[in-house]
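Postdoc handover notes: sequence design on the structure in folder B. Input tokens:
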């Protein structure tokens, strides 16, 4: 009995000691996925961007809450959103900076960031903040919720 208790204790210690490393590894993967998403967003290639979105996708912001249940819904929203940005002179965006990420479970992570949108002449069009809820799927980390907010509202997730 004593021997099996020691084995169980050692197994528990091994699992606990590797959990933070795995979470760190996933945190790095989440950060990479978000940076890849930001790069894809600036290409105006809807198919490239959609691979980063979960179905359904929920948007929360000043205008209210919107749920895109299907890929077609997300695609229509993206096309409309890009058209609106382009009408205002949008040319490109900055990288996410700062970008804070916290994995809250093995399949859920929260990220909060700010970024700048620029016009073709380099003038700032808009500074904005976003907080994302991501879900880990067999295909990788997908954005399930996007919360748009003031850049001062970036969450410092430690």
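Designed sequence:
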């Amino acid at each position: 009995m004593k021997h099996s208790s020691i084995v169980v204790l050692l197994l528990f210690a091994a699992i606990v000691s590797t959990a933070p490393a795995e979470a760190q590894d996933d945190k790095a993967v989440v950060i990479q996925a978000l940076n890849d998403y930001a790069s894809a967003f600036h290409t105006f290639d809807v198919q490239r961007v959609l691979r980063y979105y979960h179905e359904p996708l929920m948007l929360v912001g000043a205008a209210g809450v919107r749920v895109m249940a299907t890929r077609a819904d997300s695609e229509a929203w993206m096309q409309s959103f890009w058209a609106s940005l382009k009408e205002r002179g949008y040319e490109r965006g900055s990288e996410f900076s700062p970008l804070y990420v916290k994995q809250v479970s093995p399949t859920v992570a929260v990220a909060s960031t700010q970024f700048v949108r620029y016009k073709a002449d380099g003038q700032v069009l808009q500074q904005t903040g976003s907080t994302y809820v991501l879900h880990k799927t067999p295909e990788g980390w997908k954005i399930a919720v996007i919360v748009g907010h003031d850049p001062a509202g970036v969450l410092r997730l430690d």
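Context for whoever picks this up: The CA atoms of residues 17 and 29 lie 20 Å apart. Don't rerun without checking with the PI first.
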